[in-house]
């Protein structure tokens, strides 16, 4: 009872309250100031660099996937093997160090020098237009077509064939289609090239020209039903007015919007960057040596 009365008397006295209030406020102030971090010292201000890392160009040029499609593996996942693909790329680069494999596309005119034991001088040269490019890795191949003595001739070459001595680009250009198989049913003047054709040089910094020519086919019979393939390089007047009506096209236009189908049929861009980054140093050295050779040849002809 005495302690209870004493406590009541103490809190009844107003002189004790300021002390308690001051003590409480001072402790709370100390705790709050310790919890709040102080201002960090400002370091030296750096001016914005004109060459920002986000604006830098990627190390691997985008044109590599069009320039070196043979270095990419087969897009079928069930047939892929990482170890085999690396070994194939090593063999491909070893072959490229021995022979200059230039940049060419479907529609370019090439000259291929090949060893042939059945020839008189053990060598063979063939000039023609590239009508098809197919295959991946060491199985990459291309087809050349030429009309010699009114006879159409086509030869399929393996790109990494050890019997090939030289591949020379006489005319570098592209066409509107991925293959030119319809030249078999076209007039021979579209596939005739002289065997002594001189190379046509273009500037190194210029893009590859696209030839928009449209070929008019010969009258039927044709080797294939070209009206169903939707070829851009075939002249529309090659078909009759009612020939295209009611025909079910083999190449469906909605396939261009099918993202999953395109993903299954191609190598993803991220994986392409990894492959070309692995081979970038060797490819860059080969490109530099090829440019020096072209400059020397152009100076000699001048």
UniProtKB/TrEMBL annotation:
Q: Name one GO cellular component term.
A: mitochondrial large ribosomal subunit
Alphabetically, which GO biological process terms does the record hold?
translation
Q: Where is the signal peptide?
A: none
InterPro entries given in the database record: Ribosomal_bL19, Ribosomal_bL19_sf, Translation_prot_SH3-like_sf
GO molecular function: any one?
A: structural constituent of ribosome
Span list, region Disordered = 34-59
Q: What subcellular locations does the record give?
A: Mitochondrion
Query: Keywords for this entry?
Result: Mitochondrion, Ribonucleoprotein, Ribosomal protein, Transit peptide
Task: Give the Pfam families listed for this entry.
Answer: Ribosomal_L19
Family according to the record: Belongs to the bacterial ribosomal protein bL19 family.
According to UniProt, the name of this protein is Large ribosomal subunit protein bL19m
What's the source species for this entry? Bemisia tabaci
């Amino acid at each position: 009872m005495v302690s209870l009365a004493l406590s009541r008397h103490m809190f009844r006295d107003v002189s004790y309250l300021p002390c308690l209030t001051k003590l409480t406020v001072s402790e709370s102030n100390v705790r709050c100031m310790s919890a709040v971090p102080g201002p960090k010292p400002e370091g030296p201000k750096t001016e914005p660099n004109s060459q920002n890392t986000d604006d830098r160009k990627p190390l691997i040029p985008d044109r590599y996937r069009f320039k070196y499609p043979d270095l990419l593996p087969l897009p079928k996942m069930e047939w892929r093997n990482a170890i085999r693909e690396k070994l194939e790329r090593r063999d491909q680069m070893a072959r490229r160090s021995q022979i200059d494999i230039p940049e060419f596309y479907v529609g370019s005119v090439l000259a291929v020098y090949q060893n042939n034991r059945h020839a008189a001088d053990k060598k063979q040269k063939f000039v023609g237009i590239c009508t098809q490019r197919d295959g991946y890795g060491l199985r990459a191949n291309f087809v050349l077509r030429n009309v010699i003595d009114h006879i159409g001739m086509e030869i399929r070459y393996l790109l990494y064939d050890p019997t090939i001595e030289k591949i020379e680009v006489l005319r570098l250009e592209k066409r509107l289609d991925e293959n030119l198989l319809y030249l078999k049913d076209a007039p021979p003047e579209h596939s005739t090239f002289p065997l002594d054709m001189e190379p046509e040089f273009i500037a190194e910094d210029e893009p590859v020209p696209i030839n928009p020519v449209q070929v008019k086919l010969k009258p039927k019979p044709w080797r294939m039903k070209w009206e169903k393939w939707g070829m851009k390089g075939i002249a529309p007047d090659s078909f009759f007015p009612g020939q295209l009506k009611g025909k079910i096209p083999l190449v469906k236009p909605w396939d261009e919007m099918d993202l999953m189908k395109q993903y299954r049929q191609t190598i993803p861009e991220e994986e392409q960057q990894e492959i070309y980054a692995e081979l970038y140093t060797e490819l860059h050295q080969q490109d530099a040596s090829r440019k020096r050779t072209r400059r020397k040849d152009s100076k000699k002809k001048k």
